[in-house]
Specification:
Blueprint: H1 10-34, H2 40-63, H3 65-72, H4 78-96, H5 101-120, H6 126-138
Subcellular location: Membrane
Family: Belongs to the SFT2 family.
InterPro entries: Vesicle_transpt_Got1/SFT2, Vesicle_transpt_SFT2
Length: 139
C-alpha cells in the first residue's frame, strides 16, 4: 500500500507535490545561477539534473509511484521517457566520470528538450501542435 497514492490524504499528496516541484525549480534556478562560477558548469549540470529528478518525483505524490511508472512507459511516451532518463544519466556521467564540461552542457540542453517532449505527452494534442508549428516554420 506504500506505493499507492491513496494511502496519503489528498492534502498531503498536494503538499508533497508542491514541495518536490518547488525544490526542483529552486535547484534548476540555483544551477543556472552557479553556471557563472569557475566550476559552474559542473554545479549547473548537477543542480539542473537534480531539479528535473525532483520535478519527476513530485508527480509521484499525485498519482503514486506505480501508476506514474505505468504511465511513463506507455507506448505513446516510451521513447520520450527512455531518452529523458538517458540524458539525466549521461549528464551526470559527463560531470562525474568523464569530466567533460562541454558534453555536460550539451546533455543538459538535450535533457531540457527531452523533458519538454515527455511533458507534452501528457497534454492532449500538444505534440501534434508543436510538430505542426515546426513544419510550418520550416516549410
Amino acid at each position: 500500500k506504500v506505493l499507492d497514492a491513496s494511502t496519503l490524504s489528498f492534502g498531503t499528496r498536494v503538499k508533497w507535490f508542491a514541495i518536490c516541484f518547488i525544490a526542483g525549480v529552486v535547484c534548476s534556478i540555483l544551477g543556472t545561477a552557479l553556471l557563472w562560477l569557475p566550476k559552474g558548469i559542473k554545479l549547473f549540470a548537477v543542480f539542473y539534473t537534480l531539479g528535473n529528478i525532483a520535478a519527476l518525483a513530485s508527480t509521484c505524490f499525485l498519482m503514486g509511484p506505480l501508476k506514474q511508472l505505468k504511465t511513463m512507459f506507455e507506448p505513446k511516451r516510451l521513447i520520450a521517457t527512455v531518452v529523458m532518463l538517458l540524458f539525466l544519466v549521461l549528464t551526470l556521467c559527463a560531470v562525474f566520470w568523464w569530466n567533460k564540461k562541454g558534453l555536460a552542457l550539451l546533455f543538459c540542453i538535450l535533457q531540457f528538450l527531452a523533458m519538454t517532449w515527455y511533458s507534452l505527452s501528457y497534454i492532449p494534442f500538444a505534440r501534434d501542435a508543436v510538430i505542426k508549428c515546426f513544419t510550418s516554420c520550416l516549410g
